[in-house]
Structure formats: structure tokens, C-alpha cells
Amino acid sequence: MYTITSNVLSKVRVPAATIRATMENAKSNPDGNQNILMMRHGDRIDQIDPLWLDTAARPWDPPLVQDGMVRAFRTGQRIRSQLQFPIHRVFVSPFIRCIQTASEVIAALSAVDFDPNATSSKDVTSIDKSKLKVSIEFGLSEMLNSISIKPEIAPKGGKFDFMISDLEAMFPDGMVDHNVDPVYKEGKE
After folding, report:
1. What angle do CA 114, 136, 158 make, to 5 degrees?
2. Cα 67 from chain centre
3. Could you give phi then psi for residue 32, rounded to 5 degrees?
4. Terminal C-alpha separation, the chain
5. Are 75 and 105 in contact (CB under 8 A)?
6. What are φ and ψ of residue 122, in 5° steps?
7. How many C-beta neighbours within 10 Å does residue 105 have?
8. How many CA atoms within 13 Å lie on the side-chain side of 110?
9. What share of the chain has pLDDT > 90, as a percent?
10. What integer best gives the mean pLDDT of the chain?
11. How far is CA 76 from CA 43, 102, 106, in A?
């Protein structure tokens, strides 16, 4: 058994109504334990095509390649079929690769009908929006890590300019929870 500690998740402030709803869901878990599942993003374009950096408007924020999207969706299917507990909440970094990964995983987790032949969220005809909620958390990013985001590709002036409304639109309507108070506010360094 592993204990996972995080400086970010312990500081996330969740409103009382969300806590009550979570506690209602926890009644099916009599020992009161919470399960944490962590994953990284799928395959990024800059890892497949190094020339992408030369023309990218946002070289520090590479999207997934199609195989990365498929792998993320398939991972969501495996989690859905093999995990012995439900997932109620997803915290995701604001980088596009992480949003795309989470979007595909969530589509697989929340699909009304499980189709083992589906390969992406485009194959999902109906999503159960009541299954889980998503929160974009700036604290789950590598903004200040000069190893992950090399200074030569980091945005000039250190301003990352995430288009939050565009990122939120990648999730089904009603799945993004705006009631969670993030650890790091948008635009903070």
C-alpha cells in the first residue's frame, strides 16, 4: 500500500455542498478511505515531431497526437472495467495535453453504454454527466520547472495565458465544477 501526499491537493478548498455530496457517495465506502488515482498525459506532438516546435504558437503547451488521444480513451476504458471503486472527481492541469487526456479518460468513464470497440470520445454517443466533476488546477503544472519546460520555449515574460473557457469547453457541459477554490489562481506564477 502506498500513501500519496501532495502539497496541492491538501490545499484545495471545496465548498460544504460539494463535501456533503462527496460524503453521500462515501456511504458506499464504509471504511471512509479515499482512493487517489494519478496519471500523466498521453503522447505529445513534440515528442513525435521535433519540428513542431519550430512553428508552434505555444511551444510550451504541446497537444496530444491522435495515438495519445486513443491511448487516453483506452486507459479510461480499462479504468472503468477494472477499478473496484468509482471516480467522483478529476483534478487536471491547465496544459492542453493534460486537458485532452482527461477529456478522453472522462468520456470513457462516463459513457452511458460501454462499447469495447470505441477508440475515442467521438465514439461515445451519450455521457452521464452526474458521474464525476472536473476541476482545472493550476497547481498541477510544471510552469516553474525549467527541466520540463525549457527556458528557450517558455513564454516570454513567464505569462502562460491559459484560455480557461476554451479548455473547459473540451469537457461535456455541466462537468466542470466552478465551486472549487483552486490552490493557484489563474495567471499566478
Report:
1. 135
2. 17
3. 75, 5
4. 35
5. yes
6. -65, -20
7. 26
8. 25
9. 40
10. 80
11. 15, 9, 7
* Averaged pLDDT, 13-40: 61
Q: Has residue 5 got a pLDDT over 50?
A: no
pLDDT computed for residue 55 by the predictor: 93
Query: At residue 80, what are phi and psi to the nearest 5 degrees?
Result: -60, -40
What sign has the CA pseudo-torsion 51, 53, 57, 61?
Answer: positive
* pLDDT reading at 160 higher than 80: no
SS3 of the chain: the string is CCCCCCCCHHHCECCHHHHHHHHHHHCCCCCCCCCCCCCCCCCEHHHHCCCHHHHCCCCCCCCECHHHHHHHHHHHHHHHHHCCCCCCEEEECCCHHHHHHHHHHHHHHHECCCCCCCCCHHHCCCECCCCCEEEECCCCCCCCCCCCCCCCCCCHHHCCCCCHHHHHCCCCCCCECCCCECCCCCCCC
Phi, psi of 93 (to 5 degrees): -65, 155
**What confidence tens digit (pLDDT) does each residue in 126-151 have?**
989 888 999 998 878 776 666 677 77
Q: Which three cell numbers stand for residue 22?
A: 462527496
pLDDT in tens, 166-183: 999 999 888 999 887 777
pTM equals 0.77
